[in-house]
Amino acid sequence: ASTLGASAAEHGRYFGTAIAAGRLSNSQYSTIAGREFNMITPENEMKWDTTEPSQNNFQYGNAEQIVSFASSRGIRVRGHALAWHAQQPGWTNGMSGSTLRNAMLNHVTQVATHFRGRIYSWDVVNEAFADDGRGSRRDSNLQRTGNDWIEAAFRAARSADPNAKLCYNDYNTDNWNDAKTQAVYNMVRDFKSRGVPIDCVGLQSHFTGGSSYPSNYRTTLSSFAALGVDVQITELDITNANATAYANTVRDCYAVARCNGITVWGVRDSDSWRSNESPLLFDGNGNKKSAYNSVLSAL
Ligand code: XIL
């Protein structure tokens, strides 16, 4: 096959990208997006600050733009992200305790209900663990509503959209030996053992150089999968688009039956949140980079 999405499909996987609604009018951008990818994640448009700018006033216009771009092309959508410490609307600032908890659960319910039946998988909770080397939960306003806020969010999402796969998504969970990876693993194992509805784990995989792709990445993927969840690589980008690290990442996913897809975090380097690191598969002029070829041949 001659595109990322078609190659992945030959292996029963998808290959996706993050999309920004404001860039869809750029024809180079939308042409590449529509040609190469068969999964789309809205980069910012489904986040709490965008979808509920004032409490109980839901705004879906930007998200719907992306969803219709996708659905008109037969491209599926990963929803991102229902509950997260970042990109919260200002009105949550003074909230805490059950007031904040209920606002968060209402948000999860409303947004997942609005998009019911149209989302392949939701990042229900994003980045809830700390980088402290001890596997702690991240201290956040949501965490301070009680340690069970994550499972409460998953239960609300399941009720709202029973057919979407529900994922826990995080970064720095790539190296199997890291305390953060182990902490997420233990949470997922606990959720599975207690019947908390979780279907997948998302590894963002923002690699900061060829060397930050860990040699035990495949072990991480297969260990999560062995818990009975799908594994998705959700926000892949690699400093200077190291071609070897890209190919290794893709091969590791393909080696694990339940690693069902890969998403890169943007189309061209100029679209990237890390644009100064040129971490994507297309350059700022829309040309395929060597990492593109290494991914395509790894697929
Ligand atoms: C980033 C977007 O790419 C930026 O446009 C935005 O300014 C900040 O958020 N982890 C995530 C993503 O889960 O939502 C983040 O996206 C990148 C890190």
From TrEMBL:
GO-annotated molecular function: endo-1,4-beta-xylanase activity; polysaccharide binding
Active-site residues from the entry: 235
Keyword tags: Carbohydrate metabolism, Glycosidase, Hydrolase, Polysaccharide degradation, Signal, Xylan degradation
Reaction(s) catalysed by this chain's protein: Endohydrolysis of (1->4)-beta-D-xylosidic linkages in xylans
EC number, UniProt record: 3.2.1.8
Top-rank EC class of the record's enzyme: hydrolase
Coiled-coil annotated spans: none
Family note: Belongs to the glycosyl hydrolase 10 (cellulase F) family.
Protein name: Beta-xylanase
Gene: xynA_2
